[in-house]
Amino acid sequence: MTTELSKKRKITGWVISGLLTAMLLFSAMGKFTMPEMAENFAKWGLSDWITIIAIGEAISAILFLFPKTNIFGAFLLSSHLGGAIVVHMGHGEPFMVQSVILILVWAAAFVRNPELLAKFKNKHA
């Protein structure tokens, strides 16, 4: 099975990854500049961690954007978004946005890395 990307698949992967990266970088910057985000983190008992979480989110998003590191970025973003989902669930808050973003990260990872799907298909064949 070939793992070469078609032009359409490359463009799709870049567009999804670019949009997700822009949104995640905006979210990371918001953690530094938006007082309402700081209030939420304080409410959740995470005010001491907001800077580390924002830096981790930004680094993960940047890694996700570039082809050589996008799988590492996808793994890191999976952890980051999983944590966000758990925090929201633990406080009885909606977590659908974080869940959809996580699914889009996975979809982009599979679009940009066809070898992931090939390995998955081979193991379950």
Topology:
Layout: H1 7-33, H2 35-43, H3 50-65, H4 70-90, H5 96-112, H6 114-123
Roughly how many Å is the radius of gyration? 16 Å
Total DSSP E strands:
0
Helical proportion, percent range? over 70%
The string of secondary-structure elements, in order, is: HHHHHH
Residues in β-strands, percent: under 5%
Could you give a short account of the major beta sheet? none
Describe this structure in words.
The protein has 125 residues and is an all-alpha fold. It has one domain (7-113). It has helices at residues 7-33, 35-43, 50-65, 70-90, 96-112, 114-123. Helix 1 runs antiparallel to helix 5, helix 4 runs antiparallel to helix 5 and helix 5 packs across helix 6. It is elongated. 18% of the residues are buried. The mean pLDDT is 91.
Task: Please tag this protein with its features.
125 residues; mainly alpha; elongated
